[in-house]
Amino acid sequence: MHAGIQLLLEIGASRPELLLTGPALTDQGRVATVMMDAGWSAEQLRHVITGRPLPKAVRTSVGAIIAARLRAAQAYPPPATADRHDLAPPDEPFPGATTKRSSTAAAARSVTKALTYRALVECAGCGVPAPGSGEDLCPACLGWPLCRTCPGPTRKRAHPDGDGRCTTCASA
User: Fold this and answer.
1) Beta carbons within 10 angstroms of residue 172's beta carbon
2) Given a cut of 90, is residue 26 above it in pLDDT?
3) Which of 39, 51, 44, 42 is nearest to 108 (CA)?
4) How far is residue 129's CA from residue 65's CA, in Å, rounded to a whole number?
5) Cα 54 to Cα 85: distance, rounded to the nearest angstrom
6) What residues does 146 pair with on adjacent strands?
7) Which of 28, 109, 105 is nearest to 73 (CA)?
8) How many CB atoms are located within 10 Å of the residue 142 CB?
9) Contact, 87 vs 110, CB < 8 A?
10) Segment 112-134 mean pLDDT
């Protein structure tokens, strides 16, 4: 069994609302395994997946929300782990003068900051990655109108205080 599948099963055992089965378990387990192979620890992935509660109204599936959380985290390199000693704290007097304790503390702060950012990159309403700027909800959950100039079936949302165009169309 892949390490990622095992991790997801452990998460599902402790948090039944996050239990994945079937193809969702297999697919997301493979993603988690690849992330672990790339340097993510099981604890970091556990935090990415469980760091925020599920949206109040799940509009997709729990598998889709977990996939979005993993995809959002995967967009960045793995955060440093607390057992690495090559991270110097900001007040280092000169290169190589760190102590194990100060280096570990700096790495722990780095992990906390990175995991906090990664855990907060989804809409609180639907779980879609990257909510609107400065908002907890994505443009769709906020009820923003569709862009009046976007072509095709995948039109973006335009800020209601704007000129009716999304940021991509407005900058073109």
Assistant:
1) 8
2) yes
3) 44
4) 9
5) 35
6) 157
7) 28
8) 16
9) yes
10) 57
Query: How many CA atoms lie less than 13 Å away from 88 in the CB half-sphere?
Result: 9
Whether the CA torsion 139, 145, 64, 130 is positive or negative: it is negative
The percent helix, strand, coil of the chain (3-state, each to 5) is 50, 0, 50
**What distance in Å separates the CA atoms of residue 41 and residue 11, rounded to the nearest whole number?**
14
- Using only the alpha carbons of the chain, give its radius of gyration: 20
Compute the distance between CA of residue 72 and CA of residue 128 in angstroms, rounded to an integer: 9
- Cβ(4)–Cβ(42) under 8 Å? no
**Burial profile 55-83: b = 16 or more Cβ within 10 angstroms, e = fewer:** beeeeeebbbbbbbbbebbbeeebbbbbe
> Three-state SS across 80-122?
CCCCCCCCCCCCCCCCCCCCHHHHHHHHHHHHHHHHHHHHCCE
Q: Identify whether the C-beta of residue 157 lies closer than 8 Å to the C-beta of residue 144.
A: yes
Angle at 143 between CA 138 and CA 147, to 5 degrees: 85
Check: pTM over 0.85? Answer yes or no: no
Angstrom distance (rounded) from CA 103 to CA 108: 9
Interval 131-167: pLDDT, tens: 555 667 778 788 888 888 887 677 888 888 888 888 8
